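Tip: read the tokens left to right.
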């Protein structure tokens, strides 16, 4: 049997999923044990005990200065900013993509503009955002919005252009107005693609959030990572990175399940 036609069964698939993570962990802890044997004060590769102690201190011991549990406070702050940024981006991207992909009079100016905006490196304009919007919450949210909205809109525009023309003609033949056509025909086709696009943009959204928090913030996961880096506190940095990855994976999984439940007919939901 050709390799391309071989599919793992359920136990084998589970093993193949776990195997690379197990190998990475094994290599890390072997290296950590070797470095700590040579130098017990080494901070580059902390042991599992050191990282566990750091997590307990940050998650379950109130900070002596603020009285807050730092890990949960940072998580709540970052997730709030991310949720607001993703929500605004989703709404703006949906409206722009629908208009550019369905209405020729809007598509003519919007499509080139979205293409150009999607090429602008968002981190390059971060200083401009701080100058225009200040150092508060708005600038961090706007970096996420500016960073992912053009890409979302372009993806949805392309999806709108792929809607069969026959479907639009039939709806108009039955008396559908432009507004009805947008809401009853185009919108249902774009909503599942919007959720899939958000999944694809989650990594970028987290990147912009961490960058903004690292430069100007007093809380948040990115702020904490860049705060403790001056002390080479890898026992804090590594668990925070793992925690961010876990949160991102849970968000991706939640969007995937939502797509499958809300739009089971959509081909991308079954992928």
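Filled-in amino acids:
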């Amino acid at each position: 049997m050709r390799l391309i036609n071989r599919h793992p069964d359920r136990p084998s698939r589970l093993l193949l999923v776990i195997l690379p993570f197990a190998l990475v962990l094994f290599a890390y802890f072997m290296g950590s044990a070797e470095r700590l044997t040579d130098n017990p004060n080494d901070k580059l590769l902390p042991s599992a005990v050191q990282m566990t102690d750091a997590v307990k201190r940050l998650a379950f011991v109130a900070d002596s200065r603020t009285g807050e549990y730092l890990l949960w406070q940072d998580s709540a702050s970052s997730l709030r900013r991310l949720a607001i940024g993703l929500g605004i981006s989703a709404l703006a991207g949906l409206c722009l993509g629908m208009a550019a992909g369905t209405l020729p009079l809007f598509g003519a100016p919007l499509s080139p503009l979205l293409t150009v905006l999607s090429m602008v490196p968002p981190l390059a304009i971060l200083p401009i955002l701080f100058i225009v919007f200040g150092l508060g919450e708005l600038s961090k949210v706007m970096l996420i919005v500016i960073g992912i909205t053009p890409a979302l809109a372009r993806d949805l525009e392309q999806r709108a252009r792929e809607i069969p023309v026959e479907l639009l003609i039939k709806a108009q033949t039955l008396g559908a107005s432009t507004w009805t056509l947008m809401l009853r025909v185009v919108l249902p086709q774009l909503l599942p693609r919007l959720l899939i696009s958000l999944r694809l943009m989650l990594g970028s959204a987290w990147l912009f959030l961490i960058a903004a928090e690292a430069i100007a913030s007093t809380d948040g996961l990115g702020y904490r990572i860049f705060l403790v880096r001056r002390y080479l506190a890898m026992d804090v940095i590594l668990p925070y990175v793992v925690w961010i990855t876990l949160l991102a994976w849970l968000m991706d999984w939640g969007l995937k399940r939502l797509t499958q439940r809300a739009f089971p007919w959509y081909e991308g939901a079954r992928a």
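The two ends are 24 Å apart (CA to CA). The chain has eleven helices and no strands.
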